[in-house]
């Protein structure tokens, strides 16, 4: 495994670890049932949607890293790590008022999902330069 690919995997791991405590908290009590209106189920569905988006992002990040010339990989790695930290901070700030409410985990994970989906498009731009 190349050093840059190894660092890329490190960024993917950082993403997973950054959101693990909130993800585990939201998953503790319920399974996702899209037909349910219960907060716990809606929270679980939001967590599941985020996990799917985050997994897709991590896979795409590694694909982009492999396609980039060696000289651009360090820039993408720094950009991705900064984006991960910023995403978490922005979503925590955006949902701070609801974090103790039943819908708090859902709102937080919906924010993470939206930001993650936007990032997928940003990764594509790295290949166009």
TrEMBL record:
InterPro entries found in the cross-reference section: LprI-like_N (IPR009739)
Residue stretches making up the Lysozyme inhibitor LprI-like N-terminal domain: 32-123
Keyword Signal among record annotations: yes
Leader sequence segment: 1-26
Top-rank taxon, per record: Bacteria
Keywords: Signal
Entry-linked Gene3D superfamilies: 1.20.1270.180
UniProt entry tagged with the keyword Signal: yes
Protein name, entry field: Lysozyme inhibitor LprI family protein
């Amino acid at each position: 495994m190349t050093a840059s690919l190894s660092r890329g995997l490190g960024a993917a791991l950082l993403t997973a670890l950054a959101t693990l405590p909130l993800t585990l908290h939201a998953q503790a009590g319920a399974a996702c049932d899209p037909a349910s209106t219960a907060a716990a189920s809606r929270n679980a569905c939001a967590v599941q949607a985020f996990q799917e988006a985050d997994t897709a992002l991590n896979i795409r990040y590694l694909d982009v890293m492999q396609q980039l010339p060696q000289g651009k990989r360090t820039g993408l790695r720094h950009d991705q790590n900064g984006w991960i930290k910023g995403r978490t901070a922005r979503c925590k700030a955006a949902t701070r008022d609801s974090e103790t409410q039943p819908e708090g985990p859902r709102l937080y994970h919906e924010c993470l999902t939206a930001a993650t989906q936007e990032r997928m498009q940003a990764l594509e731009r790295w290949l166009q330069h």
